[in-house]
Protein 1
Amino acid sequence: MTNDTDPHRLIWERYVACWKAAEEQEKRAIMAECLDDGCVYTDPLTVARGKDALLAYMLDFHRQIPGGHFVTTYFLAHHDKSVARWEMRGGDGSLLGDGMSYAEYRPSGQLMAMTGFFTTPG
């Protein structure tokens, strides 16, 4: 079980902050802290290989949902792997949806694979 000072939780929350960051340069700076260069992000709508592809996906998310962000409601990690439950919130804080994610970390601590699970719209 982990707590708020667990190294995996700290990296996870930096990653979550990247989704919330409004500007491209801020997202890039956060990515440099928490993501492996060869990271792979997967969800029901896309597969993004590498930081640039994930950045493009995040920027598109913000175009669709200005101020959209995620809040971690549950986190558990061991052996460089984690699961998290989260809520997707609008710029005004309203609840837009929820889901779960599975992640894998490099021994150095950076995220190398993130897989999101959620019900797709429509």
Note: DSSP finds three helices and six strands in the chain.
Protein 2
Amino acid sequence: MNENSFHQNKNEIKELLLHYRNFKSGKKFSYLEEESFIRIIDHFDDTEDIAAAIEAADYGAKQFPYSAPLLIKKADLLLATRKYDEALEILEKAEVLDSADIDLYILKTDVFLALDLQQNAADLLEDAIHLFAGAERTELLFELADVYDDYEDFDKVFNCLKMVLEEDGTNEEALYKICFWTDYTGRSEESIKLHSAIIEDNPYSHLAWFNLGAAYQGLKLYEKAIDAYQYAVAIDEKFDYAYRNMGDAYIRLHRYKDAIEMLQKVLELSIPEEVIFEALGHCFDKLKNYAQARFHYRKATHLNPEDSHLYFKIAGTYMNEHHWKNAIKNLDSAMRIDRNVPDYHLALARCYMETGKTKDAVINFSAFIKARPRNLSGWKELIRCLYNAGFYSEALEQTENAQRITNYKPIFIYYQAVILFALSKSKEAVLYLEAGLKQAPSLVSQFISLNPSLFRLSAVVELIARYKTRSKRKKK
């Protein structure tokens, strides 16, 4: 509105309010038209004088008792003051006078929702959408989608948005919203058909191409998803969400260099986010460029210093490079934030084991096992730690505990055999080795890996050879 129009409108309102005061005081020749009352009500509503607005609505309704717009205005004001039953009663009267006013249905919906009558609101709108067309029908479909969202009938939310797009494939609000609900409801195949049809009519709709890509991605068809996203960025080269999703699709395909290119594009186009830096760190991690991985993980920690998992990932890069002390430092940072993550204890135990701190390693292996008692890795590493440190009796005790808790997994029979050899109990050790070979001959490599020098013992070599021969015969 330009300055002249603003002043003109202001003067008109002043004049209307003067006529309104004269009307209320009963002065002669004071008459206001229906439209004048509506403008006065809107003025009081805009200035947040709700009481004056309701009073004006009452005067208007007395002057024009068959005016549906005035009744609807009053109902809207009553709704704002939480007089729901009174508002509903007035809307029922207005509906008798004019059932073709869309505001009537929107306000009745709001009243039903305020009274926690979601089904009434849904029933009302389901009937109303057949009474309207074009933009008004679209508005009601959005209202209906919100109602279904309110009482968690999410498939019907999707249905409403789908109806909007079937009638108007360029509706941006529906295009934005349906992408989320496609993913949430898992209706990717329907979304592919819908957006393919939209693209036929609107080939330059970047949102339709994006939604098509997201639907393919929901079905794990990552190559097709990338093709669709590439069309989206060809139409809108600053479409950061398309680059973001493309980056994720490339990660799923293990194409980490391509993913890095896309994610760096996201950083150019949008405000830096923790999740993007973390994803870049992950890509560099997979490419074994640990310095760059750490750089990006640290960038992520600057944005979210309370995310313990990021320090865990930094520690992982140091562990891959055998920089155990630096790894321990970052794991300590992770555990200061959250001590209850079992994987942190497992990683810390491995670092302590590598640096010869057996006691600290055992404490952390034990913490991991306490949290995940049926996890074989924790037991295996604890036993290896004790064995390599020369604590054979303790290692033997832990193999017995591991067997009991993991339902007697055969791997621990082999471990018992190795430890018994270390305790110079060779006859008993051979018996355990034979028991392991009977139960799970394929696990014999675990026996050898714990102490390769045992393969020099003739009794061990002969026993393993005998079971390999038997295994070959069975295969024949």
Note: The radius of gyration is 36 Å.
